[in-house]
Design a protein that fits this description.
Radius of gyration: 13 Å
Shape: globular
Oligomer: single chain
Distance between the termini: 40 Å
Order of helices and strands: EEEEEEEEEEE
């Protein structure tokens, strides 16, 4: 059974930092992070392939960094210079080579003073 276990969310002040972690029970070609704010649609934050190619949403470029360890089936999202607009539930998602996606349970990130 495929499982994605996330951790690292919490409450942080504006301009602060958080690091999210997601560990999968099996290896995946592409892993990434999505987020959903209250009343909004879920949106892509960043993805990274097993070869290290990454992709970011325009709103987080230069502030967030995605990385992974293929041997540990783990992906991280380092979030710096956080803004209140970054407040959302962050979901890990992983895609196998056939393009089938699996979701994690989500972790809350709240940016507030």
């Amino acid at each position: 059974q495929v499982q994605l276990v996330e951790s690292g969310g919490g409450l942080v002040q504006p301009e602060g930092s958080l690091r999210l972690s997601c560990t999968a029970s099996v290896s995946f070609y592409t892993m990434g992070w999505f987020r959903q704010a209250p009343g909004k649609q879920r949106e892509l934050v960043a993805t990274i392939t097993s070869g290290g190619s990454s992709n970011y949403a325009y709103s987080v470029k230069g502030r967030f960094t995605i990385s992974r360890d293929n041997a540990k089936n783990t992906v991280w999202l380092q979030m710096n210079s956080l803004k209140p607009d970054d407040t959302a539930v962050y979901y890990c998602k992983a895609f196998n080579s056939a393009g089938i996606g699996y979701w994690g349970q989500g972790t809350q990130v709240t940016v507030s003073s």
